[in-house]
Structure formats: C-alpha cells, structure tokens
C-alpha cells in the first residue's frame, strides 16, 4: 500500500463521517465545527491530488475565513435554541433520504460510466502540468488564459462586500425621551437601544 | 499516485449527497447554508480530481474561481440571514413562508 492510498483510506472515513455528523447534529455550533473537520480532510485530499496551492487556500479561506464568519453569525443570532424538529410536511424527511440515495446511486453510475472505478491519474503530473511548481503553474494559467474571469471575480468580491454592508447596516433612529422612560427593555429588544 | 481517481469522485459524490439531504431536511437557515457549502466542497473535490485525471490545471483554476464565488456567496447569504433574523426573530425556514412583511 503506497503513501497516498494510506492517506486516502484514513481521511475518507473522517471526511464522510464528519459530514454525516454535521447533518445529524442539532446544535448549530457543533455542526459548524464538524464542517471545519470536513474542510480540513478535503484540504488533505487536495494535497494528495497534487494541488498544494488549493490545499493552502482551502484551509485559509474555507476552514479559516468562511467558518469564522459562520460561527460569528451563529453566536450573533444566539446558540441556546436547538432546532425545532416538528415537520410541516410529515413525509418530507423520508422523501429527502430516499431522494438522497437516488442522487448518490445516480452519481455512482455516472462515475462508473464516465471514469471507471480502476482508472488512475497519470504518474507524471508534477513534471507536466505542475512544471515549475504548482503555484507558478496555476499563476501562469490564471494570468494568461483566465485573466478576464480573474478580474471579474475582483468586481464580484467588491459588490459582495458592499452588499453585505448595505444589508447588515442598521438604521438608527433617534430615541425619544418618552420611549426611554416607558420601556427600556423593549428598546433593547427592538435593537434600537444600547 | 496509486489511488484510482474514481475513489475521490465517490467521496465527492457522497459529500454532495449529504449536503443535498441536509438542505432538504434541516430547518435552521444557517445549517442549510452550511449544507450548501458542503455541496460546493464536494464539487470542488471532484474538479481537482478531474484535473489530476486529465493531467492539466483547468480543474484547479475552476476550483479557485468556485472558492471566490463561494466566499462572496457566504458573505451575502449570511448578511441576508442576519437581516431576516432582525426582522422576524427567527432563523427557522418554516416560519419564513411569506414573500413580504
């Protein structure tokens, strides 16, 4: 058994297990932490698949920035309430699981038909596609062949940042003396007070 | 590289499926959002595996772009969830059944 096989068989069960744990976990914070574990295992898969740059980006962007944002919002909205488990449509859960099994079976058939379960990648990836290092090769591809989409993503990021600021901005209105005296708790509750 | 590429694709298919079921089953808007992130990661893993299979970097470049779009999507999506929570005091999607309030 070679090194990449050992890494795969160690991390694949962790990856799927943490994803399932995220699905079954009722507490949102625990679900987020399981998702972080899952992101780390995917980063390890990137390393095995000869993509060290994406390995670093996965850890920095996903396990770092995005999950911190998630945890921040979970804390902001309050973590003490567990999810309500009553269903509005009684057969929704079994139907969802059944459709999930269907999707997975379909994907397996597609993988078998399209790639085949025994096909291995070429041995000489480091010398051909990753020539001169993965980051350098990726930079060449990004800044030559995909320069316009790269610039478009910068516009997208600016638009997203402005959109988030506009959405999260809270309109502050002046608090009248009468309101303050009548019910200070209600002001705090409605988000106007201190 | 001794592991067949299809094994990574099976893992990515499993992650995508778990994410899909999560979107359909869960009620908390934040957890639904996390399930969407799981789906995105499953697809990203498949793209990197295809990149390795075909011996070029196109899949990795596409994964890079997908990560950028996912970051933008998370920022806007979480801002919307916070906005809705301020208005309705709930993050349960079953309670958000009206288009206007």
Q: Strand tally of chain A, please?
A: 0
Q: Approximately how much helix is present in the residues of chain B?
A: over 70%
Determine the structural class of chain B based on helices, strands and strand pairing.
Answer: mainly alpha
The main pleated sheet of chain B reads as: none
Mean pLDDT of chain B, as a whole number? 90
The name of the CATH superfamily of one domain in chain A reads NADH-ubiquinone/plastoquinone oxidoreductase chain 6, subunit NuoJ
CATH architecture tag of one domain in chain A:
Up-down Bundle
CATH topology of one domain in chain B: Helix Hairpins
Estimate what percentage of residues of chain B fall within beta strands.
under 5%
Notable characteristics:
heterodimer; A: 194 residues; mainly alpha; Four Helix Bundle (Hemerythrin (Met), subunit A); B: 101 residues; Helix Hairpins; 3 helices; 77% helix
Helix and strand topology:
The complex is a heterodimer of chains A (194) and B (101).
Chain A: H1 3-24, H2 28-48, H3 52-77, H4 92-114, H5 134-145, H6 147-168, H7 177-182, H8 184-189
Helix pairs in contact in A: 1-2, 2-3
Chain B: H1 5-25, H2 29-54, H3 58-88
């Amino acid at each position: 058994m070679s090194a990449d096989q050992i890494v795969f068989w160690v991390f694949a069960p962790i990856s799927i297990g943490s994803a399932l744990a995220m699905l079954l976990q009722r507490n949102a914070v625990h679900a987020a932490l399981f998702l972080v574990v899952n992101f780390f295992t995917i980063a390890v898969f990137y390393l095995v698949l000869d993509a060290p740059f994406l390995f670093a980006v996965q850890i920095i962007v996903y396990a770092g920035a995005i999950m911190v944002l998630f945890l921040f919002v979970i804390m902001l909205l309050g973590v003490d309430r567990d999810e309500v488990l009553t269903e509005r449509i009684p057969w929704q859960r079994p139907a969802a699981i059944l459709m999930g099994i269907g999707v997975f079976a379909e994907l397996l058939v597609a993988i078998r038909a399209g790639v085949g379960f025994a096909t291995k990648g070429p041995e000489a990836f480091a010398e051909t596609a990753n020539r001169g290092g993965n980051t350098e090769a990726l930079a060449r591809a990004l800044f030559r062949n995909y320069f316009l989409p790269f610039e478009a993503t910068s516009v997208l990021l600016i638009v997203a940042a402005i959109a988030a600021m506009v959405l999260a901005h809270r309109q502050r209105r002046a608090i009248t003396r009468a309101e303050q005296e009548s019910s200070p708790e209600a002001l705090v509750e409605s988000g106007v007070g201190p | 590289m001794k592991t067949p590429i299809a094994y990574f694709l099976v893992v990515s298919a499993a992650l995508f499926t778990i994410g899909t079921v999560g979107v359909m089953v869960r009620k908390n808007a934040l957890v639904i959002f996390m399930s969407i992130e799981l789906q995105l990661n499953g697809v990203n893993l498949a793209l990197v595996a295809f990149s390795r299979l075909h011996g070029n970097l196109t899949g990795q470049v596409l994964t890079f772009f997908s990560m950028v779009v996912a970051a933008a999507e998370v920022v806007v999506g979480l801002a919307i969830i916070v906005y809705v929570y301020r208005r309705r005091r709930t993050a349960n999607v079953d309670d958000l059944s009206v288009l206007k309030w």
